[in-house]
Structure formats: structure tokens, C-alpha cells
Amino acid sequence: MAIPKAEELGVNVAREPSLMTGAIPKKEWMDNPVEFKEGNFCYPAKQSIVEYHKFPNPREWSPTDDDWKLPDGWEDIILNGLKERLDKFRSLKVFMDICVRCGACADKCHFFLGTGDPKNMPVLRAELLRSVYRNDFTTAGKLLGKLAGGRPMTVAVLKEWFMYSYQCTECRRCSVFCPYGIDTAEVTIILRELLHLVGVGTNWILEPAANSNRTGNHMGLQPHTLKDNAGYLMDDIEDITGIRINPSWNRKGAEVLFITPSADVFAEPGIYTFMGYMLLFEHIGLDYTLSTYASEGGNFGLFTNNELMKKLNAKMYAEAKRLGVKWILGGECGHMWRVLHQYMDTMNGPADFLEVPKSPITNTVFENAASTKMVHISEFTADLIKNNKLKLDPMRNAHRTPTWHDSCNPARAMGLLDEPRYILDHVVPKWYEMPENTIREKTFCCGSGTGLNTGEIMELRMRSGLPRANAVKHVEEKFGVNTLSCVCAIDRATLTALVDYWTPNVSVTGLSELVGNALIMDGEKERETDLRFAPLEGMEG
Amino acid sequence: MGNEFENLLNEKKKEILSAWEDTILGKFEKDAFIIFKQQKDQFANPIGHKVRTGLEELFNVLSESSNREVRTPNLEELIKLRAVQDISASNAVSFVFQLKDIVRKELQIKDMTNYYKDWLAFEARIDAAALAVFDMYMASREQLHKVRYTELQAGRDIITKGGCPSALMRQEQNKKA
Ligand code: SF4
Ligand code: SF4
Predict the structure, then answer these.
(1) pTM for this prediction
(2) What DSSP character marks residue A281?
(3) Which chain A residues are closer than 8 Å to B36 by Cβ?
(4) How is domain A29-201 classified at the CATH fold level?
């Protein structure tokens, strides 16, 4: 920074480019190139990982390089890939054609609201692809080019795709406000797919996906490690409740296969949620098994391409078949439910070898899962509560005053809105809603979903999570909320960092953790602490 | 600062604040600027809200000749925002100094002789506030580093460590045994 001359004093101390993520201001958006610098991109996938997936063009490269070492004829690879997808996915073709640029979605994306970058307006994000589509796939574009809003596929365009398809969490909030139901998340999905065709992808997504493909879970945990770690958690349950629980693994002939994100077995705060599941199953005497092979609810294939998504999803059903269970119960994962409700049936379904899920405790038949045969733990738990099958003491959560974060995928992709609230009503003495335009279908994303919860973009995550954090701050100040509860493993990880920054007195819990605290187990000792070994109210001394 | 000068400041408060907001919001592209400036619902516009409320609090502190703390809740929120934006440290706090120019223009002080003592006092307050704001900015950056560190400690990064977590755990257990 130069020392200003006298006449400049008080005018402007520091001159900087605008706050567009690495771009120079005041130009037409199409002519506004992106600039990659440390902190505004996720690290690219390692060569070995790309090779493992057998994806094209494995190499070492960096987004900050001028030359991305793209394969020869990469433009044609992309355009052919786009053509193939336009033919295959009708939704894509429709989304390319019908946007009227009404702008209703423009200010609804948390990435736009937190960064102020116009290219994070959903309408412009889609335009990044639509402009190329127009240029090469519409008559007007072929004739008029830029006049018709078209532009050819260039390196600059490709770089822009990479920047902005990884500044979208595929949360679908924008689609709620679009009068035509255009789902920009699906545009992002296609952009990422196309980028993989020329070897442009991120490590934080591809490496967990490789782990999941190899060992059955993102963490790369092998069977004995999973079992051991779950065992340590059972030791903690025994210390807290006096009850010994022995989880059932890989047991053929169990009625239900339970699948949850691997982070629940391994990382805080998911482990407390896992303890909650185990207490619940013990409480009702459920005939369940866990699997060390289908040991991951998450599916990073959704963040990569449809083939990988299909493959990782198929493994859950293959395991259900091998074990001979009747149906599948799913834990607190976010995007697993998106994959299940939106894509599973056409990818791998119908799962005819399974039975329509029926709760063995209440005899409720889950008709909503008649085809996928998979029930959400919150649906299952809410049904148990409704039928009076659980002994609960909400006062064991009296040290917590939660608010409810609707995780994007369960809320918008499967409509799980009321069950969690019903459960909260019964397991905590009091909880509070965030403002109306930040919850339920209009919920704000954690800001780091779809494989963006990586440390190298921490500042960006704090910006994209700002709309969510701002609403949390509001209920913290207004009602004394100290807990942000949700049903998503990615949320539990990303919101933890988000609240650590914006609202440090708030902590993040899964819903089943709160259920586990409240459950009165047969033969238990008097509880003095919650599942985190924090003293219960009245037990602090 | 004399009462007369304080009154002048307060009479022009609305205009001053609006111009001050523009120095921060004006750095955004036009489309974003319009939304951030106009949308009054804080949940639909957290950046605009934090800029508006943060600047107003600081203005209130600066325009009263009292010793009120610079560190106020909404200003703190604004500085937290500045600390995670893609801007340099100097740029993040420069808005404090820009108030000088804005006030000079808005009050249309042509004849400084009447007010020069008030003006010097006001400028001194702004300079002191800038230092306090810089401390706040640094505190937010420190907090951000802690967040990053805590996340690393939580061990979720094993999913991209390329190593086998099972082997790592085994090593750890062997060490313990
Ligand atoms: S899907 Fe979510 S992140 Fe992506 S553009 Fe829409 S609102 Fe933004
Ligand atoms: S709301 Fe729908 S139609 Fe309107 S600009 Fe956005 S995507 Fe296009």
C-alpha cells in the first residue's frame, strides 16, 4: 500500500478490486475472468486418486497454474459430454431452455448472500452453462453467438465453471423460489460431471469416494476398526448409564439393516448421535444389524457423477440382499436421503427383494418407502413416540435450549420437516424456531455441503454459512438458544466450525443424541451426565 | 467536541451513515450493491444488515464526546464479516478513516476556523477508533485460526490423508498398550 498524497488523504486508504471472488470489477460478467488464489478453491484431486477411479486425465496440477494440462481436443470432449447429457436427462434440457431470467432466485442463494459475487446468483450460475449450450446447441446461438447470449467453450469458461460449480452446495434453496421449478443444483451436478471428463475435480470429494468404494466408508475404516471404535462408544454408554450394549454387526437374518454415515462412528459430535441410536435400539429391542461393508450412508458420488453415485448406492442394497434383511433403516445423513428419494429408484430400484418397511414395534407400515424400502431414523423414532413406545425424560436435556436446523437434503429433497420437530417436542423441555424465511423448505444451507467442508477454503465457508449463522445468532440473543440440532453428518461437521466462529456459545448436536439423553433405559443407574459426560442440570456439583 | 458540532453530526446522521455504508457496499458489483443496500430484512440480507447496524453503533460512539467503548456488539459482527472477506487487512479497516471525508462533505464545513478544535477532536476520536477496530479485526482472525485448528484436531481430515485410518488406530493402540 502506497502512502497517499496529501490531496488523497481521507479519500480512500486502500484501493482493492471488488469483492467478486478473485475478479476485477465493473465489466460484463461474461468478460470477467476468474482468478484462482490460495483460499478460493478446493485442492485438486491427487493423480493417484484420479487413477484409482479410472477417471480421465490423471496428473498433478493446480488451479493457480495458467496451463491446466487439459487433454487434446478437450473442447470436443466437453461438448460431446454435454450433448450426451442433454439427450439423457430431460430435466437438463428443460432447465437450459425455460429460464425467463425473472430474477426471483437471484438473492436466494447463501453463496451470493455471503459473498456478494453476482456469479453466485443461481440464475447466473446456470448461465455459465447455458451460454455454451446456446452457442452450440440452439439455432439462434449458432447464428448470432454473443448477441443471443451464447459464447464458445474456452479455457476461461472452463475455469469459471470450476470456480462456481464448487461455490454451490447443490442445496436447492433457489429452486423453491423459481416459478418454473428450475433446479440449479442439477445444473451444478452436470457442470461437475463435465469437468471430470477432462480431469478437473477436487480431492476432498474424490478421495473419500475412493475410500468408500474400497472399504465401504469415506473414512477408509476397515471392519475391525469400525467394530473397535463402536466398542469404545459402548464403554462410554456403560459408564454413563450402567447398561452394556453389544451392537450387532454383519448378522445374517436380522430384520433391519441400519446404515449411517461413518463419521457417526468416528468423529465428534457424530459419535454421540451413534450412542443415541444404540440406546434407542436397545430400548425397543430392535432386531437390527450394522454392516462393516455398507458402513457409509453418505454418497460422494452425488457430488461427482451419476455413475459413481449409482455404484456407491448399489452397495447398500447388495449388502441388504446378502444379509437377507427385510428393510433398511437409515441414520442421520443429509445427502444419502437425496440420493435415495430422487435417484435410487431409477438407478438401482425397485428393491423388490426387500419388504415394504413395517415397524416391528408399532406395526406402522411406511408406505412412503414402499419402493426404496428405506426409512429415516426420525420417521421411525417419531412413530415410536406417537405410539407411546418410548420412556422419555426431557429434563435430561434441560441444559440444552436447541433450535432446529432443517438440513437441506432431508428438508427439500425428501420433505422431512415435521418429524424432527415432533421428536424435539418430546425430548427437550423447550426449543425455539429460527425466523420463518430461514427454516423448513426455505432453510439456509450450512454453506459447506457437497464436499466443500475442507479447511483450505475456511474463509469462504464462513461467508457462505453467514445467512445460516445470522439466524442462529438471532435466536441465541432472543431466546438464549445454546444448541443447534440437525439430522445430517456433514452439517454436524460444518456447522461446528461455523458456530465456532459466528456464535461460539452454541454447540451442534444430532437429534438422536438428544433422544439418547432422554431415554429411560430399563435397569439403568441414575444418570449424572449426558452422553458427552457433561453434568445434567442439578448435578453440576 | 462542542455541543454545536455534536448537534451538527446528529442532524446529518442519516446522510452520513448512508454514504458511509456505500463505501463498504459500493465495493460489490452493482447487482449485489442494490440488493444489499435496499433489502431491509436482515435474514434475507445479512451483509447489508451487519454493515448498517455495525456502522451505526460506531457512529454513535464517535459522535458523542464520551469515552464509550468502541467494541460494541454489532460493530463486532461487522468486523467479523470483514475478517472473512477476501480483502487485505488494511482494506478491512479502512472504512473507519473514510468517515472523515464523508463528514467533511456532509457538514459542508467550508469555514474550518469556527470548528477546527471540534474537527481535530473528532479526527482524533476516529484515529483512536481505527486502532481499536484493528485490534478487533486481529481478534477475529485469531478466532478463525482457532476454528481451523479445532477442525483439524477433530480428525475429519483423515478422509483425505491417503493413509489407512485403521492402521493409524492400530499404531495408537499399540503405543497405549
Ligand atoms: S442449489 Fe443452493 S448453492 Fe446452488 S445455486 Fe441454488 S441456492 Fe445456491
Ligand atoms: S427464478 Fe427460475 S426462471 Fe427466474 S431467473 Fe431464476 S432460474 Fe430463471
Answers:
(1) 0.93
(2) H
(3) 116
(4) Fumarate Reductase Iron-sulfur Protein; Chain B, domain 2 (1.10.1060)
